[in-house]
Every structure is written in structure tokens, then in C-alpha cells.
Amino acid sequence: MGMITVKITLKRNGDFMKILKTIPKEDGFHMPGEYEPHEGCIIIWPERADSWQYGAVAARKAFVKVASAIAMSEKVTVCASEAQYDTAREMLPEHIRVVEMSSNDSWARDYMPTFVINSKGQRRGIDWGFNAWGGLEDGLYFPWDKDNKMARKFCDMMDTDIYDARDFILEGGSIHTDGEGTVLVTENCLLSRGRNPHMTKEEIENKLKSYLGADKVIWLKYGIYNDETNEHVDNICAYVKPGHVVLAWTDNEDDPQYAMSKSCLDILEGETDARGRKITVHKLPLPSPVYITEEERDGLLHMDMEPTRQENERLAASYVNFYISNGAVVMPGFGDENDEKAKKILEELFPDRQVIQIYARDILIGGGNIHCITQQIPKAVK
Ligand code: KQY
CB neighbours of 6 closer than 8 A, spacing ≥ 6? Predict the structure, then answer.
């Protein structure tokens, strides 16, 4: 019998993810404002018991509420570990996608891709270096290797090209942009010794401009008192539209937060943005200081035989840590008398979106809030 030879040609599909070594700004890409249209949102399922008290049971319920509120107006993808896949699938509504992806913790804002778009509506990701908010210098856990791979894994899954910026340590929560050339950051975070100590402030600024496609960086000095991220900007100040920001505020001059917020106010009021506009600052009241209770602290496993929270530690509670979805603003509540006041202010600032307030103490105990656990995927042609 004659032999039949079947010749198979394996061809690389040109649509798979490419890792790019070029510069987004030079390629015509920039990071849009969070209020611009989204394709969807990424969240990572909470699991580690030294971050989330009592085995993350209460945190998971809060994450489900956040994911469900966002899913009312855009697609939500939740990444869960193999061990937690079934629980996540069972607790989340069917219209939320659950994919298995390993991680060290659950802060999508900080290590899922920062997305940039161009004028043709194409989308790419940026893969920053991540070292758990300061590495061996003053980082918050070790190891962080799985978290550091998530941006690339997610873009691979989406067939989205990704810029390799792993030589630069940056978390998504440490930047906010108006999408029109201006970026907000804090000095305490971006100039911290655990991130990019080999770089000058000017070099860091140039890196941000070239990767975010921006023309101006506004350097606030501080964030929220006792914020373990070295004071991410997303907890103190956020754009609500071009030319307008909200700033976390207290009138109590005896609170250490007062001088920090006042310094930000002075800087913002003395600045113009990349387009030359003066910046209108809307003060968003802070809740009364929130302290961890003994019971909550007892519910956290120790990490390397050390407690992860101090007794009676003040937590970095702020209403500024909200997420802007296509149809809503999903904001934290703390059971505080300012919950309603803060909600009203955001309702006035976002007349076309529903403001949904979610009791978020169980997220706050982990060290962040709703903005920190989400990452938007801007709308694009691809
Ligand atoms: O971006 C954030 N606010 C996350 C901080 C997480 C710290 C780990 N406990």
C-alpha cells in the first residue's frame, strides 16, 4: 500500500498577543480617563487569610456586590485560583465571567494591565513591574511573583498586545489621568525607596508621560494617612471629568489628614492641567477615622509569624476610592454619618450615572477599597 503523507503547516496566528518594546506615546497611544467608555472590568477573587479576615468569607460577599453593581453596565471578568474557582462560580451571578488564574492577592488595580488606546480605537496593555508596594524594602508581602505575571496573562487571554515596562515599578492605584494629557500622582508613593530608587523625579515623570501618553504630571505630596501603599493617589484624589477632581477632605485640623489634604488642595489650586485649564477641586468629606477592631484583627492569619495589622490600627478609609463604570459610580460606604453626604456629592458630579454605595469595611481591612480591586478595560475596536 502506498504511503500518504499529510503535510501540516503550523502558522502563527497574527492576532495573538505581542510583547512590545516600543513606547506607547511614540506609537500614538494614551491612557483614557476612567469615565470614558469601557469594554469591561477585571476583578481578582479574594483568598489569602492574612489579608482577608476569617478566611475572606465577608470579603467575598463584598466583592460579589461590587462585581454585580459593575456588571449592571459592563462585562466583568473575575480571576480566581483553582482552589477558589468553584466558590467564585457559585457566589457570582451567571453573567459574570470567572476564569482560573493564580495570584498572590486580589488587587486588580495595581497589577492587572493599565490599558492605553489610540485614535483608531485600538487597545494595548502596559505590563509594569510589581513588587507588592515596595519589595524587600517596605513591601507588604512576599512573594509577589504570581501577581507580577497577571497583566501579561490577561492580555494573552484577550489577544491584546502589551508593552513591556517591567523595568519600572508602578501600581495602577498610584496614577489617575484625565485622559487629556494630565496625570496625578503622589510623591510619597512614586518617590518611595522601595520602587524605583535608581531614578530621579524627572526620569520618573518622563517615564509616566511616555507610557501613559501624557504631557503633564501633577505631583501631590501626600495621600491618605496610614495608607500602606505609601499613599496611592486613588485614595485621595480622582478625576471626575476633565478639569474637575474630588479630593478627600476633613475640616478637623487636629487630624494628621488635615495637613495632608490641605497640601494637596494648595497644589491643585495653584496648578493648571495639560490643556492649560485651572483645576476645580470638589471636596469629598472623609468618614470619621476607622480603626480595626480586636475581633477583626484576630480574624487575620499572621504572615511570616507577624500580625499583618497593628492593634487598633487606623485604616485608610476614603470615599474617593470609587470605580466609574459605564452606567454607575460604585463607591464605598463605612456605616458613617458622612456616607450619605459623600454619595450626594458624587450624584451631583455624575448626573448621568447611578451612584451605588456598597458597605466596604470588609474590603478596607485588606488595605484598599473598590477602586483598588477593579481595573477597567477601555472600549476599543480591538
Ligand atoms: O491598592 C491598594 N490599596 C492595595 C493595598 C493592598 C495591600 C495588601 N494588604
Answer: none
